[in-house]
Amino acid sequence: MSYLFTSESVAEGHPDKVADQISDAVLDAVLAQDPYGRVACETLVTTGLVVLAGEITTTARVDYEEVARQTIRAIGYNRSELRFDADSCGVIVTIHRQSPDIAQGVNKGQGLDPDLGAGDQGMMFGYACRETEEFMPMPIAYAHRILRELAHIRKREPQLMPYLRPDAKCQVTIEYTDEGRPLRVHTIVLSTQHEEFAEDWRSMHRRIEEDIRTILLPRVLPPEMLDERTRLFVNPTGRFVLGGPHADTGLTGRKIIVDTYGGRAPHGGGAFSGKDPTKVDRSAAYMARYIAKNLVAAGIADEVLIQVAYAIGIAQPVAVYVHTYGSARVPLSDAEIAQKLTTLFDLRPAAIIEHLGLQAPIYRPTAAYGHLGRQPEPLSYKHTTCIVEQTPHGPKETFQEQTLTAQTFPWERLDAVEKLREAFSVKETLSN
User: Fold this and answer.
1) CA 282, CA 284: separation in Å to the nearest integer?
2) Distance between CA atoms of 350 and 344, rounded to whole angstroms?
């Protein structure tokens, strides 16, 4: 018997994703000036209002209000007709410093553990499989692809679908064989916000559905995965004119399954956006994905789940777990694979941050269309340093600016494949 599995993605204009992107834009603004800044930024968006709250300890000088407005404008909320726009919305900033009790455990040499400790307790998961070229489960990979392309059309080729607005959601159901092999796309549900471009809502609906079927989907889905039985539901209520923060309040951290594996793998419960990399909710989840992806790419297993768990203020993880779902291609148990991995990878927070280069402003791109399964790309950014000189006339500030480079999505690199193949004595090369 075949079975069905479904995952969902949401567009950058979805209220919760607007909040995520503002939180990560604040984080990037801090890290661009102060790579050691501590950030835990939460955002709420609703009709005409943005609220920034949380804890930030930094030497950086950031105009948080302007960061929020720039982010909203880039998403596409730039007109009053949307009832939430970058220029007219109110922005309330209520941010204070990180708790000294937490800082003591995280700052190197201040807590019980002399190393840089984990920023919180908890468990984090990483996962990879061979279903797609992204080493991601097919339902979530396809849902992300559809919405990324929808945003591309809205911003870069608006003549094709000129009625598009920023908010959208997509749900993809894949039919699998009983052995777990993807068979076909069973159902696509796509709701996209749109202008009211006709008096009759039925004619609007017909136009949007036809454009989705003939313009959007052929760009992103393999034709062999679609057939005459594939079901497509576009704006199932009939119309979707009101959307974004005007229609629904958005909060940072409410789309943790969209951000990860679409429900295919467990989740530890900790959100990513707005958190600097000393928070293992974020950095350890990225590292677990990095190891899992490289394990699968190296041919050690076809499917891998990794769990790491930490105690706040303690550097070494308290536990590492590996599950290969019976797909291991090496003569080792999952427990033995886990033990070997602890000798191959340093899972202390400071080591993860250094290995993946996480103290750079690389986080805004992660806050929509998934943190995982993305393509690493070089990124240039301006690093500004403020030098204060005391003069007889008072303090004088001098700003020095230099261009630095970083890499987005560094946890998606496959630079540990050969190391793992050698460590596990794997000779067979597998294609994905």
Assistant:
1) 6
2) 16
